Each structure stands twice: as structure tokens, then as C-alpha cells.
TrEMBL record:
PROSITE patterns: HMG_COA_REDUCTASE_2 (PS00318), HMG_COA_REDUCTASE_4 (PS50065). The lineage of its organism: Bacteria, Pseudomonadati, Pseudomonadota, Gammaproteobacteria, Vibrionales. Keywords: NADP, Oxidoreductase. Residues 20-39 have a biased composition (Basic and acidic residues). Coiled coil: none annotated. CDD domains: HMG-CoA_reductase_classI (cd00643). It comes from Photobacterium sanctipauli. GO terms for biological process: coenzyme A metabolic process; isoprenoid biosynthetic process. This is hydroxymethylglutaryl-CoA reductase (NADPH). It comes from the Bacteria. InterPro entries: HMG_CoA_Rdtase, HMG_CoA_Rdtase_cat_sf, HMG_CoA_Rdtase_CS, HMG_CoA_Rdtase_eu_arc, HMG_CoA_Rdtase_NAD(P)-bd_sf, HMG_CoA_Rdtase_sub-bd_dom_sf. Its EC number is 1.1.1.34.
Length: 419
């Protein structure tokens, strides 16, 4: 019988067995000493508050890097985007492209800015982008839009929950008027009801215009939520603005067939000779790799199947002023790679959770606006095109990384570029 590997258990126990009970309690117990340094009480961005924070931090070298002269001159721009401001960080930005997108809304050759500290990432997306462009471009289609917020209500029993639902379904027009009174751009497009025992979840779905819309739908739904609490004939025992059914900033399976944010699909057909020339492998080998990775992803319990959407999305979101935490949900999706009828390569990606916008949030901050301007995608009327570019970028990354694995170049590329 092979010997059992006890490394994990040994590692855990070795951290604490050399300590006595008193020492362990001293290290892990509460410490009620007052902090030596306190930040100013105001969270707002004013020159005086910024200086007080740095006086507390007392680190001249860090201040010189984070609150440089340019940042100091521009700091009023950040007033609506952050609390307890002390400065800005600098991240390297690279360009991937040209990436040809043949979409319903995006029709151009795009040079896509990516902010990352991971070597080899931009090179990979650049290679995939050029491959797609030489193949004639990616065909991209925005399929659906919608952002949800899901208030929840707890009642004494199922009968009360049913009576509440019976009242709710008569109030949809009223709810819509209340929700849309809080915003110039948001539209309440649907309300769904989900009953779980004596709990009721209301799924409010909105169209949010060119904003990604999380704050918009929160404010609109809260207005309806307060109206419900004041007017419902069946009073809930407990009620909360969100019951975690929306999938906000979490990977969930429900949106694979639905939508949260913008749902986009992209595809490309690539001649066999071009695959061999640029990726140094064959369509057959890439298709077999995709089949085996689909099985591996299923065995691991993956929600959706893709190689590394998160790499593209994190770099793209940071560069373009999107909410980077939404990568947790946006990176859910499906990649397919097959041999087409001509012996070439067919590849597609479908991303149902792209939380992107071209107005609001961080999109008007100086650096982020500049990145959107590089693509001509800042401002009203551009969010659908931004989502289509984002999907095409993910497709480029899937092609490049799968090609690298199939050609045996993945480790070599990281060794060359990251070291």
C-alpha cells in the first residue's frame, strides 16, 4: 500500500503545536488597545483631509509615489469614486490589436488597452487579435441586456407568502412608475417571483442604458422596496433589499441561459493554413484539447467552460473604468472550438454576464476615459459596442492560449517574457 501523504495535516498542526495554550490565546485573542494613529473622520476628498491622512501615515516615500504632482492637480476628479483618498497607483497598460470586430454595434479594427502586471498576457491577446483580424474578423452579436436586484421577504407561513404574491402581481405598473422615477436612463423591464417555503424573492430586471447599472438598479429597487413595506396588506416578518438571487459579483449557473449585464456571443472561422502559420498547431489538435478541457472543467464543477476569460476581463475592466469585482460573474461563459466543414477552425465564445458601461462609474476618470477614447467608445450610445469588443477580446485570448498549449509554447512563453 502506498504511504498516505500527510503533508496538509502536518502543515496545519505544525503552525500551532509549538505554541502553548497561553501563547496561542495571546496571539489569537482580542486586543482592545486603542490604535496609536487614527484617520480623519471625514471620508470625503478635500485637500485638508488628504493631508491629514498622510500626516497619520507618515511615509514620505509612499506619498511621493501615490500623491505625485499630477495626481495632486487632478484629485478633484476622483471625488465621486472613492472615500479616504490618498492618491493613485500606476499600472502598466499594453495594447492588443488590431482586433477586427464585425458586430451589430462594433464595426472597426480596435486597439484594445489592457492594464495588467502579468507578463505574457498582453502578448497573448495581441497574437489572438491579429489572428482574428487576418481571418477577416470576429462576428459578434449582442444577444440580451438586463441587470437585476432581488429583494426578499419572509412570512410566517406559505399561506401568507401566497397572499403577498397575489397582491404583488397586481402592482407591477405602480412598481415600474416608482422605479423609473429615480433615474433618467433606467427602465424596469420585468419582475419575476420566486417562492421558497415562506420566503418570497422578487427579481427586478432593468435596462440601464449605457451605464453598467449596479448603483442605478439598487437605488430604483430600494424605492420600490420601501413602497412595498409601507403598502403591502401582508406584513413580512423580515425583509431585505437583496436576497442574493441576482448573482451580483458571484459566479452563478442561472445566467448561462439568461443574462446579467450584457450577453454577447462571438465567433470566427480560420483557415487551417493560417492556424498552422500563426499558432504552430492544427485545428484537429485544438479541437481535441477543447474536448478534454470540457471534461476536465466538468469534473472540477466549473460553471461554464472557458480557458481564461478572467485575464482579459480584469485587464480590460481596470483599464476602462469598469467595476473590476464584476469579473467574478463576468468570467462565466462558454468556449467552443471545433474543426469546421472546410478543415479549418471554428471557435466561439458566449459571455452572458458582461457588466460594462461607457458612462458613470469610473469611465470618466482621466486615465480610464483615455483608454475608452483610444477605442472611440466613451460616452452615450457606446456600451453595446464596448460589450461586443470585450467578447471578441475574450475570443482572441481563448485562441491564443489554446494554441500555445497545443504547440507546447505555453510554459516557454511565460519563461521568456516573465523572467
Amino acid at each position: 500500500m502506498p504511504k498516505l501523504n500527510l503533508h496538509r495535516r502536518d502543515y496545519t498542526t505544525s503552525l500551532v503545536t509549538h505554541l502553548s495554550s497561553e501563547e496561542l490565546q495571546q496571539k489569537l485573542g482580542p486586543n482592545h488597545d486603542k490604535p496609536e494613529k487614527k484617520q480623519p473622520r471625514t471620508p470625503y476628498l478635500t485637500p485638508k483631509a488628504v493631508e491629514k491622512r498622510w500626516a497619520t501615515l507618515d511615509n514620505a516615500e509612499a506619498k511621493a509615489q501615490l500623491l505625485d504632482e499630477h495626481t495632486h492637480q487632478q484629485m478633484a476628479c476622483y471625488n465621486k469614486n472613492i472615500e479616504n483618498f490618498i492618491g493613485t497607483i500606476k499600472m502598466p497598460i499594453g495594447i492588443a490589436g488590431p482586433l477586427r470586430v464585425n458586430g451589430l454595434f462594433a464595426e472597426d479594427d480596435y486597439h484594445v488597452p489592457l492594464a495588467t502586471t502579468e507578463a505574457a498576457l498582453v502578448a497573448s491577446y495581441n497574437r489572438g487579435s491579429q489572428l482574428i483580424t487576418k481571418a477577416g474578423g470576429a462576428s459578434v452579436m449582442l444577444l440580451n441586456e438586463g441587470v437585476t436586484r432581488t429583494p426578499c421577504f419572509a412570512f410566517y407561513d406559505l399561506a401568507e407568502a401566497g397572499q403577498f404574491v397575489a397582491w404583488v402581481v397586481t402592482q407591477y405598473d405602480e412598481f415600474r412608475a416608482i422605479a423609473e422615477s429615480t433615474t433618467r436612463h433606467g427602465k424596469l423591464s420585468d419582475i419575476n417571483v420566486n417562492i421558497e417555503g415562506n420566503h418570497v424573492y422578487l427579481v427586478f430586471e432593468y435596462l440601464t442604458g449605457d451605464a453598467s447599472g449596479q448603483n442605478m438598479v439598487t437605488i430604483s429597487t430600494n424605492a420600490v422596496f420601501e413602497h412595498i413595506l409601507h403598502h403591502t396588506p401582508i406584513k413580512p416578518q423580515q425583509a431585505f433589499l437583496d436576497g442574493n438571487l441576482s448573482g451580483d459579483k458571484k459566479a452563478t449557473a442561472q445566467t448561462l441561459r439568461g443574462v446579467r449585464g450584457k450577453k454577447v456571443t462571438a465567433e470566427v472561422n480560420i483557415e487551417k493554413a493560417l492556424v498552422e502559420k500563426m499558432l504552430h498547431t492544427t485545428p484537429e489538435k485544438m479541437a481535441e484539447f477543447a474536448r478534454m478541457n470540457t471534461i476536465g472543467g466538468t469534473l472540477s464543477g466549473s460553471i461554464g467552460i472557458n480557458a481564461h476569460y478572467a485575464n482579459a476581463l480584469a485587464a480590460f475592466y481596470i483599464a476602462c473604468g469598469q467595476d473590476a469585482a464584476c469579473v467574478a460573474e463576468s468570467a462565466v461563459g462558454m468556449t467552443r472550438i471545433e474543426v469546421n466543414k472546410d478543415g479549418g477552425l471554428y471557435a466561439s465564445v458566449t459571455l452572458p454576464n458582461l457588466m460594462v458601461g461607457t458612462v458613470g462609474g469610473g469611465t470618466s476618470l482621466p486615465s480610464q476615459k483615455a483608454c475608452l477614447d483610444l477605442m472611440g467608445l466613451h460616452g452615450a450610445g457606446k456600451s453595446q459596442a464596448l460589450a461586443e469588443v470585450c467578447a471578441a477580446l475574450c475570443l482572441a485570448g481563448e485562441l491564443s492560449i489554446v494554441g500555445a498549449f497545443c504547440a507546447g509554447h505555453f510554459s516557454r512563453a511565460h519563461h521568456k517574457l516573465a523572467r
